[in-house]
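Lecture notes, part 5. Sequence design as translation. It can be helpful to think of inverse folding as translation between two languages: the language of shapes and the language of residues. The source text, in structure tokens, appears below.
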């Protein structure tokens, strides 16, 4: 039997100064929060900044961890 491989992913709640939350409409019609995969040797915040920059061309400056 082959070993199972797992990919770790994360989603983010991005709020602007007005308190509005960014949600994305997927090409299949579903609404999603922005996010993506965490690569090896990458912490969660680095991964989040990279994914948001790649997908939405936004720069994340700070984070509140919940």
């Amino acid at each position: 039997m082959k070993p199972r491989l797992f990919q770790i992913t994360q989603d983010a709640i991005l709020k602007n100064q007005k308190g509005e939350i960014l949600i994305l409409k997927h090409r299949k019609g579903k609404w999603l929060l922005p996010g993506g995969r965490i690569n090896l040797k990458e912490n969660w915040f680095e991964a989040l900044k990279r994914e948001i920059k790649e997908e939405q061309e936004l720069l994340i400056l700070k984070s509140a961890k919940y």
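The translated text above is only one of many valid answers, since several sequences can fold into similar shapes. Residues 20-66 form one domain.
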